[in-house]
Specification:
38 strands; eight-stranded antiparallel sheet; Beta-galactosidase, Chain A, domain 5; 3 domains; homodimer; alpha+beta; about 700 residues
Chain lengths: ~700, ~700
């Protein structure tokens, strides 16, 4: 899939004063007086500069500046082991090698058809001067909008196995500013409202951790290619000093790896504004290996409906009984509804045995092969196939991977036989963690983003790929761009979705959505399950959203599989707005964040994959906003029918959420569109080409 | 040793609405709307009120108010286990029992001869409503100036062994304010400058963690009776919400205990001002078990000199060679000096084999029984005994407890044979942790304050007690009042001592000392090693202190064993100030913090144990201060000769640190003393009774 590849490589000689002097001339980076860089590198456009330092104690550091202004101050690197002295001090540079790359590649599905990977690379090798003389490489990559690095630990006699207690990776943010972050390692899941605090108000944060410095620079710390390793959280240690805090393990070291191994990439997106930060997110894909699965035409972006929202409303149940949602009859009615409106998938939750006991607590009783007697899965599949509606499979594990892995292959086999090509998995835990087996076969609790789970999720994705099935995990491990390598890892949840608007206390406030776009959504697709046109949750409680906003989510919150999550009767009662959900695309050639501000608003335009149609989505926080939007993203000279779903002039998510205006206008790329977003509101537009 | 004991105990019947209603009338505490207290209690003076709650999820909480104003908002309790579901939600109150106690007891040595333990107790028992039906007790004690509680986990079939991943103990500080805290779990030691930040600027803090709220209330979070458990650090999780963060272990769970067991006490000191906060520190002693050692008259408070400062100045070495400090000849000269000036102890570091290799890295080579050939330990001991000067033993382990425990008994036996009654141990680590053995006998690294070290330190103290030897650990586990139970645990370090003024970058700034008094010093004695009258460190670099301040430390920073840390020649060159160091007592009948402000200044008066002499010490930060001090602590009607060592009028730690005035005046308790502390200065006074 690579069709352009430029590669330049030169290896610099032995490091030392000569090298230091040589390379120090290239850049001007911030660092403590007295520490001279031993190697430097710059981004392709020359704006970002990286300096590698070794201080008086022999600690390896890096620093980053942008256009000559310090962004990341000298930040140290190293490891703490449980059975060997720390690898931290007494290091010297052995070699530094530079290369660069400018390559474009294609996504089988995604926000952009073509992704450009343009970076300069600096590979530094360090060795301990004395004692154990262990060695590690640090591979840095500088993009125009990001700095990334990973540790690569070679095989070596004094480090045959790394029992990593902590990865001592620092991020010293030079400027003060704002931060948006979700707390990490709290009650063992990821779904929280964001904290918006000063950077020095960060406690222990999940990534992506997004910051805006006083000078307006936008940063986000995250990781790429989280494989056989523990997920990285970020803790604030001192003023401006953040440090990696790996997700713990039940068994002592947070990560156990035999050498050679490499860590995930530690990534700092660096962008001048919020839209540019969003566009920088291709870096996570670029840092992953290319598609390993070959032909993935069987991974189908699609919209789907589900037997799902009723359970969150408590009008149906997952478990058996009089309110059981997953019945043959109801599923057929849902298939009829889906087929009538052009949805090609039906998610059925609560179809399988195991929901009747205390499943939330143990998950031991779940069967992944046996349906409830009132759900004839073969018949429902057959019925659906005839109508062009596939079942979306469902594997709720209650975070019990012992039970799940035991049944994984037969469970996948069943779905394959039934023609299911997408499975939503789930790892909701009430027990305080993921139930797994330790090396001695004892039941232990693990964290959702620990090394055990990085292995588990990959195992599920690989087993599913063998059966041409895509995976969409809820309460997942975070997204780190692995969809590039495994394109059947089609979406995931990993933050508060729409179900919190059914029963959450509190529900998702409007500013949550506009924070989500610039935090969680930097990492990859999210199965947000939007489109609740009733605007009501459990017990008819109001959802903090206007009607137009429910439509806007389909463009602002990217996922190649998008749910129309509401009940059929609510769609049928709202045919006007529902039309947008039926029309909106899910796979794209191009994506442009046209305007946005973290936590305030976001305006996104996307061009449908393989078609000239554009879509636009905009959401705001609790504040109403007006703006004038140039339509210059449209093809020049072409006329479009703009099908506009906008907040009524009197709309307000608190007082008048259902006020919507649906109107059509003819526009061209030279036009501007006046936009008015109500408080808690949104805007959704389809631009249908009409000819020249 | 108890000579007063009042005990009232009544057990309340089965809990439930009746109990809740009954006890809710007693107090008025802050809590979220809708959560009614299921039990309450108050401090003996009625000012502090405690409410126990169970919320809708069945989570146990507690809240504390003072004089009707919320101090600690509803804060939850529980455990996360590695092999069993969390014990957190679905709890119900089974019983609540109240009692009260007013007892006074005597310290064999200490800041106060008599300590009063006056508290009300509430013992609550909770059980899970369903699932595993596990049970836990939480025992609360309310003092007039503190709230303390501990978990007590009974033996039970569904919790035979607790593999504790985290203790989910929260401290929700209602008011914003200032915090003084040293970072925890950083590079695996405790010696750091304090951070002074907003409470919401706390990251991960060691305890004691001291706070001053906006309304002026002084709080400090710490623990008591840290036995066979992991030390508690405190992490900020959200605005105002702090949570326990136990020190990790190399082996997965942070704590492993068979039931029944009890946790250390979690303590919140609550005082109206800084002096009252300091006086509240007897709570830590009161929460420990009484003396287990019987007659401890062999534990001797004393002042000592040492072969020590020269090594920090780099004019002598620990290791053998031409600069070796611990030679027979030099030790004898030091004994002569000690005897001449009335010091009864001589610390000799670097006396034993093992300092020549890379000891800092491994500690494997240390012998605890073999002296270097140029140090005749028997001869030196004999020489000292004849002159009334005992050796202070030294066991530097380099944080290698494998090597140390292997030699512990012979090492202690040797010192016992030589008449040594106090040993300074050391756990300085360059390797990234404490080297220990895991249950499979493999070498692992542990944290200084983990469960393994809580066991190790106790083992050393107990083995030493059998030989009538007192222990003074450096780079220790934190002090949690265990000196009450083991009075031979005579002092410890556990924060930056004077050696940082020899080579620290930076050195200890003056405000560090005034922070120390209200943080680390709340927990117990510290071997601070003061008295550097040269006021210079390595390479003649200046120490940030005036001359009078070096004397003031002996009163402001409590330790029953105090070092005169400077070189003999520096004392002989400064006979005036030296006189105070010779005169000052080390054991006390009474202690009064007369005035103080966290990080700003501290004025302490102490009455010598068994004698009518008083001493006064005062230190300030970088700011000069004047005040008028009423001498009302002196015995009424008695005349005293005040021997005053004060900063000269032109003294300043930066420009004129050596300016000192030594003067005598006759004073009475009705007098006031004008005090002027120079910037970075201090004041030391001895009040010698003269008769009526």
């Amino acid at each position: 899939m690579r069709f352009l590849c430029l590669l330049a490589l030169w290896v610099m000689g032995a490091a030392g004063p000569a090298l230091a002097q040589d390379t120090a001339q290239q850049t001007d980076v911030a660092q403590p007086a007295g520490t001279q860089p031993v190697a430097t590198a710059a981004s392709p456009d020359g704006k970002l500069a990286l300096a590698i330092t070794i201080n008086g104690e022999g600690r390896v550091g890096y620093a980053v500046s942008r256009e000559g202004k310090p962004v990341i101050g000298e930040s140290h690197l190293g490891f703490l082991f449980s059975d060997s002295r720390q690898m931290l001090r007494g290091m010297e540079l052995q070699s530094a090698a530079k290369s660069s790359k400018d390559e474009s590649w294609q996504q089988p599905w995604g926000e952009w058809r073509t992704v450009r990977d343009n970076h300069n690379e600096l590979v530094t090798t360090f060795q301990e001067r004395d004692k154990l003389r262990r060695t590690m490489r640090v591979r840095f990559r500088l993009f125009d909008n990001a700095v990334a690095f990973r540790y690569e630990v070679p095989q070596q006699p004094n480090l045959a196995r790394a029992n990593i207690v902590e990865e001592l990776t620092q991020f010293r943010v030079v400027e003060p500013g704002d931060a948006w972050w979700a707390p990490a390692l709290e009650s063992n899941r990821e779904e929280y409202l964001y904290n918006h605090t000063p950077i020095d108000g960060i406690a222990l944060a999940q990534t992506p951790l997004t910051m805006r410095t006083r000078s307006g620079l936008h940063l986000s710390i995250h990781e790429a290619a989280l494989l056989d390793y523990s997920g990285m959280n970020v803790a604030r240690v001192h003023e401006g000093l953040l440090e990696a805090a790996l997700t713990p393990s039940s068994s002592g070291p947070k990560v156990v790896r035999d050498t050679p191994f490499e860590t995930p990439w530690r990534v700092i997106l660096i962008a001048p504004d919020a839209p540019a930060l969003y566009h920088a997110n291709t870096v996570f894909l670029n840092l992953n290996e290319p598609n390993k699965l070959g032909d993935v035409s069987w991974v189908k972006p699609r919209k789907y409906v589900g037997i799902w929202w009723g359970m969150h409303l408590d009008t149906q149940t997952w478990n058996s009984g009089p309110k059981h949602g997953a019945t043959t009859a109801y599923a057929k009615r849902m298939i009829d509804f889906a087929a009538r409106h052009g949805f090609s998938g039906l998610l059925v939750e609560g179809w399988n045995k195991g929901w009747d006991g205390d499943w939330f607590a143990t998950g031991d009783d779940f069967s992944f092969t046996e349906a409830y007697p009132d759900f004839d899965i073969a018949e429902v599949s057959r019925y659906g196939r005839r109508k062009g509606v596939r079942l979306i499979g469902h594997h709720e594990t209650a975070a019990n991977i012992v039970n799940y892995e035991r049944q994984l292959e037969p469970g996948l086999d069943l779905y394959r036989r039934l023609g299911v090509d997408t499975i939503k998995t789930g790892y909701v835990s009430d027990a305080g963690g993921v139930q797994a087996l330790d090396p001695n076969g004892r039941r232990v609790f693990e964290w959702h983003e620990g090394q055990v789970m990085s292995r588990h999720h990959l195992k599920v994705v690989e087993e599913a790929a063998e059966r041409r099935i895509a995976i969409n995990p809820h309460e997942p491990i975070k997204d780190t761009g692995l969809r590039r390598t495994y394109p059947n890892w089609v979406s995931r949840e990993g933050q508060r979705g729409m179900e919190y608007n059914a029963w959450g206390e509190p529900k998702n406030p409007p500013h949550y959505d506009t924070e989500l776009v610039f935090t969680r959504m930097l990492s990859g697709p999210m199965d947000f399950t939007p489109g609740i046109l009733s605007l009501t949750g459990r017990g008819n409680t109001p959802i903090p959203s206007t009607l137009a906003r429910q439509l806007a989510y389909y463009v602002t919150i990217y996922s190649p599989i998008q749910m129309a999550a509401d009940l059929p009767e609510n769609y049928e009662a709202n045919p006007g707005p529902f039309q947008f959900i039926k029309d909106v695309a899910v796979d794209w050639d191009d994506t442009r964040m046209l305007a946005g501000s973290v936590g305030d608003y976001a305006v996104v335009a996307r061009k449908e994959r393989g078609r000239p149609t554009w879509f636009l989505g905009a959401i705001t926080d609790e504040e109403a906003r007006t703006m004038t939007l140039p339509l210059s993203f449209l093809e020049r000279g072409r006329r479009y029918r703009a099908e506009i779903y906008r907040d009524g002039d009197d709309a307000d998510f608190r007082t008048n959420p259902r006020s919507i205006v649906i109107e059509r206008r003819v526009v061209r790329s030279t036009d501007s569109m006046p936009v008015r977003l109500a408080a808690g509101g949104g805007l959704a537009v389809r631009f249908v080409p009409l000819g020249r």
